[in-house]
């Protein structure tokens, strides 16, 4: 942590919510606040909120927004040649200026490994996931023979639901022509993301893409290959840990999910969302900072922002 900013200050100055004077109220997602600056442009503020099991935690993670936003920028630049993306500019570490797209209501999930939701499904004895057959004899965290596409519907409320490609077409959510393009891009993006990760000693385990249309053109939106939208393992020692049946070292929100489960919270009805202790919030920050450094090869340097709303007003007025 920078000597300019003490740990306590960091904990007390998280960005939980923004409100920009003179700009229409944003759409508030779980993590991002999306301001419409004009017909074609969004001002996307990545806050320090963190969510798990579709619940937003009451306490935020210091600098998580800056880390996430800059990871997304880094990763968007790595896929410039594969597909147009929404990123126009990053005028501040918490802010992305993006093309306002018409979102396609599907979470395009790619999986290289039997982990997380895929493993839980497999472990229950089920072998079909979103219309894809998973091979027999796999252990948790084993690679699939080839990456698989396991989409989910993007629910406006509550949990996203698994859906097969066949049903996406049958229900007419996306046209056949557009879907074939999305699927082609998803596989290319996942291959690139895996390559970039591997160069840095990481394994891209799984990830989620969101697409939209900008003036009719298929465009990658939201975030890409970040710790919020992806799981990563350390490459070093992966094989050995698999052979011994040891847990993999995860650099992602799995850390938070596991902690919550230890506290008896899995997002089910009637369960009480636990408070995140300060010490734990700092541990999570360290995980995020570690991944940033590992993936980008650059040290994360926090930018101290005492009054984010004023800063945002300054930035946004250039676009409104
Ligand atoms: N370029 C874009 N055009 C339109 N919508 C976008 C764009 N980029 C991101 N979004 C949407 O903005 C929201 C980002 O906020 P987020 O906190 O991720 O929300 P959520 O709780 O829905 O995951 C998402 O609903 C995402 O689909
Ligand atoms: Mg999101």
Give a description of the structure.
The protein is an alpha+beta fold. The protein folds into two domains: 7-101 and 277-316, Phosphorylase Kinase, domain 1 (2-Layer Sandwich); 103-244, D-amino Acid Aminotransferase, Chain A, domain 1. Helices cover 32% and strands 24% of the residues. The chain contains nine helices and 17 strands. It has helices at residues 7-12, 64-78, 117-123, 165-170, 176-199, 238-244, 254-262, 278-296, 308-316, and strands spanning 27-28, 32-38, 41-46, 51-52, 55-56, 87-92, 95-99, 102-103, 106-113, 128-129, 132-133, 143-149, 152-153, 161-162, 202-214, 217-221, 230-234. The strands form four sheets. Strands 8, 9, 12, 13, 14, 15, 16 and 17 form an eight-stranded antiparallel β-sheet that branches. A hairpin with a 2-residue loop joins strand 6 (87-92) and strand 7. Helix 2 packs parallel to helix 8 (278-296). The longest helix has 24 residues, at 176-199. The chain is globular. The structure holds adenosine-5'-diphosphate and magnesium ion. Adenosine-5'-diphosphate is lined by residues 29-32, 34, 42, 86, 98-101, 103, 210, 212, 221-222.
Write the layout of secondary structure elements.
Elements: H1 7-12, E1 27-28, E2 32-38, E3 41-46, E4 51-52, E5 55-56, H2 64-78, E6 87-92, E7 95-99, E8 102-103, E9 106-113, H3 117-123, E10 128-129, E11 132-133, E12 143-149, E13 152-153, E14 161-162, H4 165-170, H5 176-199, E15 202-214, E16 217-221, E17 230-234, H6 238-244, H7 254-262, H8 278-296, H9 308-316
Antiparallel strand pairs: 1-2, 2-3, 3-7, 4-5, 6-7, 8-15, 9-12, 9-13, 9-15, 10-11, 13-14, 15-16, 15-17
Helix pairs in contact: 2-8
